[in-house]
Task: inverse folding
DNA sequence: GACAATTATATTGCACACAATTTAATTGCG
DNA sequence: CGCAATTAAATTGTGTGCAATATAATTGTC
């Protein structure tokens, strides 16, 4: 029944787009992995370092808000970064519920090495122009906002 | 040094795009989860079922090629689908290295339920027009191809 | 036709990701 | 003030992902 299949096609677009996003995320990871191996980081660890390089000394919650991750993911990840001597974790004096995460000298120093290794290789691997990347990124952020608000209303 | 920062901006686009993809994938997952819970599936399990609903009886390798997943991921996933009585796994008679994965009656029957529950909700949650979704999906697939070929040459 | 190389799964180990629960600290309300 | 409600991390359990390795079957080659 081709008529029914045709009527379903637009409905299936959401599925196809999600798979495109999901599989592109994996493809990105495959490009990042050999680069990040040279820094001794995984991709989520690299994201945390990017956040801290931008603004040092944040609570676990603040890191989580920026990366859309919760303490169940961040706590063990931060412990690994701590045992790699890249960050230190200290209870806040003002609010002892909070754990403040700060860069060590070594963690701050990794920034320059990361800057030379990662962004140029990633940009090249996308095979896209700056204009294309900008447009795609903007569309994805808008999509993410829609999805997050839809999920929030549940 | 604003000059240096400005020079870095285009380089950082790759990073920003990757994070947009990565965080959009998570956002999609948050939308899918309550829907797929009603089917008793995770998102990767749903992907496998979509593949099998499209073409029944595929080897693990063939499923992996369609979804960009390897046996390390698929073997335990398929075992879970098997213990949920949605698929059956049988060694191929012609080539005993291969395991053929086929739908059970129950697995085939789940298709209709999935069709009514998932695609309409996903399409609505994206908040995008069909034209926007089509364009975005096409751009992502092109990006994925670039990334995969870059990773392959690595 | 034996045997090395290749191929298809399976297994192991590590690192996310998130739901659900727990613990401890802080806030808010009467 | 005192206690309930809230909040921040940590913990537990399940399910991916993937690298590396293991195992078994098939293919290619001499």
Result:
């Amino acid at each position: 029944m081709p008529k029914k299949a045709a009527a379903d096609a637009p409905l299936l677009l959401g599925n196809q787009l999600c798979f495109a996003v999901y599989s592109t995320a994996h493809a990105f990871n495959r490009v990042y992995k050999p680069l990040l191996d040279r820094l001794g980081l995984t991709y989520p660890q690299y994201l945390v370092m990017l956040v801290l390089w931008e603004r040092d000394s944040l609570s676990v919650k603040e890191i989580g808000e920026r990366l859309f991750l919760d303490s169940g993911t961040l706590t063990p990840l931060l412990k690994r970064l701590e045992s790699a001597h890249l960050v230190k974790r200290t209870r806040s004096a003002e609010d002892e519920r909070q754990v403040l995460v700060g860069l060590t000298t070594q963690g701050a120093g990794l920034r320059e090495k990361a800057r030379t290794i990662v962004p140029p290789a990633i940009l090249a691997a996308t095979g896209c122009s700056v204009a294309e990347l900008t447009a795609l990124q903007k569309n994805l952020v808008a999509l993410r906002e829609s999805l997050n608000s839809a999920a929030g209303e549940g």
